[in-house]
């Protein structure tokens, strides 16, 4: 009977097509299986990046916003059913229906908030940094004038704005800004020293610049008023540590709220929502995952709790429909393939 393939072999097998399609992309990939880690960097042409290269997480930030909600619930500083009216002053959020939106509804994309701020174009914007101009003043203007068309909850509909509102609300409950709250409650206890909302002078040399799908360099996106929607940066080793904690490999005071964020909280459909996580069935097992295509970066993280395993894929090339039509696949494809292989290898 042949032995199962190593984690290194799994990574090479399932990322080969992506690397061949995006020849100038830098891809960092990692697997955790029962606490064993393997990290590998790839590049179709040129030298691969270091294993600890720093990437913008973009939309992957939302799982950390969901984690922050769970951590504040664990500490008694928030409730899943806490309405915004208990967090944001009436002078800033005067509409009664808007005030009834709960923290859980924001975390599960059932708040009914639009995907993007309606007043995103109220000030001159840079198309290469579309949220960089969206200030605290514009955010406050949105809250003061927001009137939901229908009261919450609503069917699942992804809202980048809703995640930004959730990050703001959680900052108020924590008494710290978004990045500092995560630093103190999660990153420092888990020793995730390369994960931050701000690229420090120490981290900057390891930040890989983002690119379009065709390889043109693009500036990083910034989120001054909506950090909970996409402001974090991290590395594959740090994200594997976060996945391990979510699988129970951390102090109970951290693992308990992180595992809580993986529970499905919406009904119906092939994909249900946890706190920032999408929840699906794969090979008869429940998997939690999140993917992002934002600015010049693409990312995928996934967990298979039943087999104590997880996947991290980070690339510094964006994705486009044209690229897909040419056979270039986003990181969801190899991400799910790796989760499937991990499930198959550990359940046979």
UniProtKB/TrEMBL annotation:
Domain Beta-lactamase-related positions: 16-317
Pfam families given in the database record: Beta-lactamase
Entries under InterPro entries matching the protein: AmpC-like, Beta-lactam-related, Beta-lactam/transpept-like
PANTHER family: BETA-LACTAMASE-RELATED, D-ALANYL-D-ALANINE-CARBOXYPEPTIDASE/ENDOPEPTIDASE AMPH
Protein origin, superkingdom: Bacteria
Protein name: Beta-lactamase family protein
């Amino acid at each position: 009977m042949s032995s199962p393939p190593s984690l290194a072999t799994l990574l090479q097998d399932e990322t080969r097509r992506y690397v061949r399609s995006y020849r100038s992309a830098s891809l960092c990939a990692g697997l955790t299986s029962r606490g064993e880690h393997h990290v590998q960097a790839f590049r179709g042409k040129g030298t691969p990046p270091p294993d600890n290269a720093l990437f913008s997480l973009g939309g992957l930030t939302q799982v950390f916003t969901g984690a922050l909600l769970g951590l504040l619930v664990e500490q008694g500083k928030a409730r899943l059913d806490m309405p915004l009216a208990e967090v944001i002053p009436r002078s800033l959020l005067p509409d009664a229906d808007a005030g009834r939106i709960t923290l859980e509804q924001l975390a599960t994309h059932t708040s009914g908030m639009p995907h993007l701020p309606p007043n995103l174009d109220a000030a001159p914007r840079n198309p290469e940094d579309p949220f960089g101009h969206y200030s605290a003043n514009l955010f406050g203007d949105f809250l003061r004038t927001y009137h939901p068309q229908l009261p919450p909850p609503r069917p699942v509909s992804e809202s980048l704005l809703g995640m930004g509102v959730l990050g703001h609300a959680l900052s108020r409950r924590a008494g710290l800004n978004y990045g500092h709250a995560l630093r103190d409650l999660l990153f420092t206890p888990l020793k995730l020293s390369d994960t931050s909302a701000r690229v420090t002078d120490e981290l900057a040399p390891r930040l890989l610049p983002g690119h379009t799908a065709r390889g043109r360099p693009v500036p990083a996106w910034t989120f001054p008023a909506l950090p909970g929607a996409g402001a974090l940066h991290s590395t594959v080793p740090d994200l594997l540590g976060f996945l391990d904690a979510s699988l129970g490999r951390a102090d109970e005071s951290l693992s308990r709220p992180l595992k809580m964020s993986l529970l499905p909280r919406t009904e119906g459909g092939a994909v249900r929502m946890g706190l920032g996580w999408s929840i699906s069935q794969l090979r008869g097992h429940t998997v939690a995952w999140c993917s992002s295509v934002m600015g010049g970066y693409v990312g995928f993280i996934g967990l298979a709790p039943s087999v104590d395993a997880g996947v991290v894929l980070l690339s510094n090339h964006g994705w486009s429909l044209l690229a897909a039509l040419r056979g270039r696949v986003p990181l969801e494809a190899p991400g799910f393939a790796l989760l499937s292989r991990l499930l198959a290898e550990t359940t046979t």
